[in-house]
Design goal:
Distance between the termini of chain B: 54 Å
Structural class of chain B: alpha/beta
Oligomer: heterodimer
Largest sheet of chain B: 5 strands, parallel
CATH class of the largest domain in chain B: Alpha Beta
CATH class of chain A: Mainly Alpha
CATH topology of chain A: Cytochrome-c3 Hydrogenase, chain B
Number of strands of chain B: 7
Largest sheet of chain A: 4 strands, antiparallel
Strand content of chain B: 5-15%
Helix content of chain B: 25-40%
């Protein structure tokens, strides 16, 4: 809805639908110029970093999973990586591969949720996937089948889809039975077909014109692989940094009019994490059907239109299905489900690629393993500045649209980022009174 | 774009189906996601209920009253304390889903700190300008604020139980939910006891069932994500944990997780409301 106040135009969306968590949008236009864009987040903070203090070094994977019900594995695996680094332990490759398989499941589940249930209805003019199903049940069923395949991986390897129980510092509690892995194969074959059909579907959508110049930040994996569970931090400006440098690479600032912690690159400006960034910096690492699909559907080497992130998500879903299938081929068991991770007084850092982008954890441990200090930087809070910049550019270019339509399109622009507001424990904006 | 994909201009006819609303307070979204995770049932469910308010799933937003409201999350701000009263007024039946809504959730661990410590140890630990944060010093369950018709436990809730609750509420019958401990399910599953045979600390004897004894089936001890079972004898379990050599600090930690702080030596829930 919009209000007119003293000749100013104030675009105001009270509640954002189809994003995870709750927030609101305010755009202020004065004399035909966008003067302020604010993504107001009214998700109450839950103070995870504070309640982690004094917990044991084995506890952060389960505790931080509760930051986000949609990408709990991202939190679990990033916490494991940081704590294992602090304790000077590296897990064997068999364990790492199994973690990567679990992560593929989360990517499939999360991307399918976003593409079909949260984002696609925007492009087709429906309020929800349920409404879309009234006219095109086949499409929604395809999306749900894909999402279910991701959840099947999470359930077989992790125990359940939301907050899996099988992940621990050092590895897993129990290795999967051979039967479980055999059961996953046909499910993932079908998922691969569905994911390819998804690329075809979403690349046929109409995309508003918007090219944004943001710097990109993503991981770059050591082996010839697309980044999920490990890698160095890499920027499109050419910087390459290990996880330990995250705190120096990224500066979080508080601005006077807001409680938001704005992330920016040290010595640089705002930046973007997530599918567009991953694809731009790792497109050369896509293989097989994912690489072919990206080429066939004209994604190019770099995609700068945030509305087309839905295509990148679909391509990444193809990759995750293929990668999961290839791990199922490769994996021939492990001598133990986990390795010992004896605590020591040290600091450890972890970075992985959550479905929504780079996720960073840092833990300072006491000699007995108690957490002295924790820091968690989720992707959505890193993207907030870029998101607001996109909205400003988008609104400026479309001021001629009827207000209802403009408001709807702004909401769609926000959903480009698949923002997970529940995760973004670091920003909470108070609504401002304007005169 | 293939123009046949676009929504036709006419709206679907209004229906007389019962209305369902899903609300979110302080939470991770995992319990409402469990509803969307019912991939095989979601579309069938949407045929028998009208989804009137469910921000995570739809931008349609019909005003109440609602026949059934599912509430996720705990109350941690003054504004939310008011909002839940409004939700209650608009809802014929109100069911809380998950540990946050039912017990205050992991964020209720802050309740162990006093109001002063909450400010200095919690808010200041996360925010450089804590004075801007309008959060209450406590995280409380929905039942501390309004009458609740049914509480569904779990962090997250079990999908099958969630569907059972929704269908039972719509049919006007009492949902069939277990009221035993995880131990009972675990025995029926034929698991070897992780605690007796392996010495692994397990909250199964005192935790509400509903997960199919998931953790012991994965060779780990239950960590209590469904909260205390009715009549749980936590005192007896604590004696066993100590006998197995668990340090006092770890005994406290294991009882202080996703259902708010639980007093391990009594049977009452401490400071969560």
């Amino acid at each position: 809805m919009t209000h007119k106040i003293d000749g100013d135009r104030l675009l105001h969306v009270d509640a954002l639908a189809r994003v995870e968590g709750e927030g609101a949008l305010r755009v202020r236009v004065h004399d035909g110029r966008v003067v302020d864009v604010e993504l107001a987040i009214y998700e109450p903070p839950r103070f995870f970093e504070a309640l982690l203090r004094g917990r044991g070094h084995t506890e952060p994977p389960d505790i931080t999973a509760r930051i986000c019900g949609i990408c709990p594995v991202a939190y679990q695996l990033t916490a494991c990586q940081a704590i294992e680094a602090a304790c000077g332990v590296e897990v064997p490759d068999e364990i790492r591969l199994l973690r990567r398989l679990l992560y593929c499941g989360e990517w499939i589940e999360s991307h399918a949720l976003h593409v079909y249930l949260l984002h696609l209805p925007d492009f087709l003019g429906y309020a929800s996937a349920v409404d879309l199903a009234r006219d095109r049940r086949d499409l929604v069923e395809q999306g749900l089948r894909l999402k279910k395949a991701g959840n099947a991986v999470l359930a077989e390897i992790g125990g359940r889809a939301v907050h899996p129980v099988n992940v621990r510092v050092g590895g897993f509690y129990r290795l999967p039975e051979a039967d479980a892995l055999i059961r996953l194969r046909p499910v993932l074959q079908q998922a691969l077909d569905d994911a390819l059909a998804t690329v075809r579907l979403v690349s046929s959508l109409d995309f508003p014109d918007l090219e944004q110049p943001h710097e990109y930040l993503a991981l770059r994996a050591p082996a010839e692989e697309y980044p999920l569970d490990r890698g160095l931090l890499m920027t499109s400006g050419g910087g390459v940094f290990p996880a330990e440098e995250f705190g120096r690479l990224v500066v979080e600032e508080q601005v006077s009019h807001s409680t938001a912690l704005h992330a920016r690159l040290a010595g640089g400006g705002l930046y973007l994490v997530g599918p567009l960034a991953r694809y731009a910096l790792n497109g050369d690492r896509l293989t097989g059907a994912a690489r072919d699909a990206a080429r066939e559907f004209g994604l190019g080497e770099v995609c700068r239109n945030p509305f087309r992130s839905i295509v990148v998500r679909a391509v990444e879903t193809v990759y995750a299905c293929e990668e999961a299938l290839s791990i199922l081929e490769l994996w021939h068991g492990a001598p133990d489900a986990s390795v010992d991770v004896p605590p020591r007084g040290a600091v450890g850092h972890g970075v992985t690629e959550a479905p929504r982008g780079v996720l960073y954890h840092r833990y300072a441990l006491d000699a007995d393993g108690s957490v002295l200090d924790a820091r968690i930087v989720p992707p959505t809070s890193q993207n907030q500045a870029a998101l607001e910049a996109d909205l400003a550019a988008f609104v400026q270019a479309h001021l001629d649209l009827p207000e209802e339509e403009l408001t709807r399109r702004c909401e769609q622009a926000i959903r480009n980022y698949d923002p997970c507001i529940s995760c973004a424990t670091h920003f909470l904006r108070l609504e401002l009174t304007r005169g | 774009m293939d123009s046949s994909l676009r929504r036709p201009a006419s709206d679907p006819p209004a229906s007389a189906r019962p209305t369902l609303a899903v609300w979110k307070f302080a939470s991770c979204d995992g319990c409402q996601l469990s509803l969307l995770d019912c991939e095989d049932e979601l579309l069938a469910l949407a045929e028998v209920v009208e989804i009137s308010h469910f921000l995570e799933a739809t931008s349609a937003d019909a005003p109440g009253p609602y026949d059934l409201s599912l509430v996720e999350g705990s109350i941690t701000t003054a504004a939310d304390a008011e909002r839940i009263r409004q939700v209650r007024r608009l809802s014929r039946r109100l069911v809380t889903i998950g540990a946050c809504a039912t017990s205050g959730g992991v964020q209720a661990l802050r309740n162990l700190a006093g109001v002063d410590e909450f400010g200095s140890e919690y808010v200041a630990a996360v925010y450089p300008r804590p004075e801007y944060i309008a959060a209450l010093a406590t995280s409380t369950p929905i039942s501390a604020h309004v009458p609740v018709d049914l509480e569904l436990h779990g962090c997250p809730v079990d999908r099958t139980q969630l569907l059972e609750v929704v269908t039972a509420c719509l049919a006007g019958r009492t949902p069939q939910l277990p009221a035993e401990s995880v131990c009972a399910e675990c025995k029926r599953a034929g698991n070897v006891c992780v605690m007796v045979a392996g010495g692994t600390p397990c909250l199964g004897p005192v935790t509400r069932s509903g997960c199919d004894a998931l953790c012991p089936s994965y060779a780990r001890g239950c960590y209590g994500c469904f909260g205390p079972a009715p009549g749980a004898n936590t005192g007896a379990l604590v004696a066993l944990l100590r006998a197995d050599g668990m340090a006092e600090r770890d005994v406290l930690r294991i009882f202080r997780t996703f259902n708010g702080p639980v007093d391990p030596v009594g049977t009452r829930r401490e400071a969560s409301r």
